[in-house]
Amino acid sequence: MLASLTSGNHAAVLGRAGFAAAHNATPFPQIASHVLRVARDTELYAEGSPSHHVYQVLSGAVRTCKLLGDGRRQIGFFALPGDWIGLDAATRHLYAAEAVKTTVLLCFSRRELDALARTEPTAAQLVQNVLREGLAAAERRILMFGRKTAMERMASFLADMDARLADGRGCFTLPMARGDIADYLGLTTETVSRMLSELRRRRAIALEGTQSVRILDRAWLEGLSGEETPRYSA
Amino acid sequence: MLASLTSGNHAAVLGRAGFAAAHNATPFPQIASHVLRVARDTELYAEGSPSHHVYQVLSGAVRTCKLLGDGRRQIGFFALPGDWIGLDAATRHLYAAEAVKTTVLLCFSRRELDALARTEPTAAQLVQNVLREGLAAAERRILMFGRKTAMERMASFLADMDARLADGRGCFTLPMARGDIADYLGLTTETVSRMLSELRRRRAIALEGTQSVRILDRAWLEGLSGEETPRYSA
DNA sequence: CGACCGTTTGAAAGGCATCAAGGCCAGTGG
DNA sequence: CCACTGGCCTTGATGCCTTTCAAACGGTCG
């Protein structure tokens, strides 16, 4: 078991969190879970590998990614604390999953979770909600890719990160490098860097070091991200 | 009920297919369904509208789409016979749905379907599978958008259509116009037209009229779609 | 301190969009 | 019956945004 974790890099099983040890917020206390700690750039599972486990991020960050023959890479999404990974796969993973930085996660058996979902409607409901959220996120991203410029993509990304990991005063630390952002947005590292510099020049954001971001003009940023069309009201 | 269907264009309710009338392949014989016939360009539901109904396409084609403030449009996906629409929404539709051409569909109550899924594990399973399939399709599309050239996108699209509606000898009729394809692939109508002409010049496809396509060199086309092979080079 | 890796910045190239015009087909009305 | 008209499609010329190529910068860790 955990075969996909044994190759190359080491991923340490820190402890077991079974039914008895169910602490604060284990989402499925009925089934066993491992706490896993993985180092930067460790592969959680490979592209195309069978789906044996499902994970929830506790701390750190994970990227799902896919490679094209000639080396082009696309990042599917970034899983941050609280997010799930691996639930989308029917039988095999379409994207690989790798730790962006040192990451701690909860690991469940896919088989046990499926069994639980068959008998426990609330578990099925939770799975369904995670799937729906993932689908909604994917659809937002499709819009972004299809019709947005580099600057609009950058603004959308920053707005998303702001919503997901800001401290309340618009400050957050990006867990990923420029190259990861580029492969997430379908751009190059150079363009990502240029857009960030441009945003800093316009006083929309402030950068401390390379990873620390502060949102200065959220309204302008969100206007730029282009999503103002909810013509429906009811 | 069916409030989203009453605006402007007319969508006729042709009949009722309840439990008793469950003919060949109603997926949920336990709950009632309407058979709906909608004309070209009729809106099934609006962007941001509450999700009251779920549909399965019987014939024709439906596009889901979203507009940006300045008129830019993105098509989420094309639903062809057998495909589901509206199941992805948690409470509100992120994308609008419109008939690409005259379309017949089966219409279910969202509320009844949810209730059924709570008591009937097989129904929940079916919903989950539809969601997973949708998520997988969305993730393939994200890869396409992020890292593929215009020609690779066109090839991917044709390969997809070939798989979904070809007659067995690589012949199929596109239900949608060039503009729809463009908004689906994140290109312009001009570029779509140019790519098709280029493919015809290279004898990868044959066109009869504007909508009828025949795949001549499937291997080359699939190679071009980028999953495996090097980049397209003129 | 110095090498390395990620980041930033600049200059040039390329691919797709934009602008523009002409062709084809179906539906319409004289 | 046929010219007319409008929508959709195709093709060409030009421009712009992003990529590509290249080099310098800065922080980190031996």
Major sheet attributes of chain A: 5 strands, antiparallel
Could you spell the SSE succession of chain A in H and E letters? Answer: EEEEEEEEEHHHEHHEEH
Strand content of chain A: 25-35%
Q: What is the SS-derived class of chain A?
A: alpha+beta
Assembly form of the protein:
homodimer
- In the sheet with the most strands of chain A, the strands line up as 1-2-9-4-7
In round numbers, the mean pLDDT of chain A is 86
Overall, the morphology of chain A is globular
How many E-type strands of chain A? 12
Return the domain count of chain A.
Answer: 2
Q: Uncertain regions of chain A: pLDDT < 50 for 5+ in a row?
A: 1-24
Instruction: Give me the CATH architecture of the largest domain in chain A, please.
Output: Sandwich
Radius of gyration of chain A: 19 Å
Number of helices of chain A: 6
CATH superfamily of the largest domain in chain A: Jelly Rolls
Q: What is the fold-level CATH name, i.e. the topology of the largest domain in chain A?
A: Jelly Rolls
> Biggest interface, and residues per chain?
A-B, 50 and 52 residues
Look at the structure and give the CATH class of the largest domain in chain A: Mainly Beta
Q: Percentage of helical residues of chain A? A: 25-40%
Cα separation of the termini of chain A? 50 Å
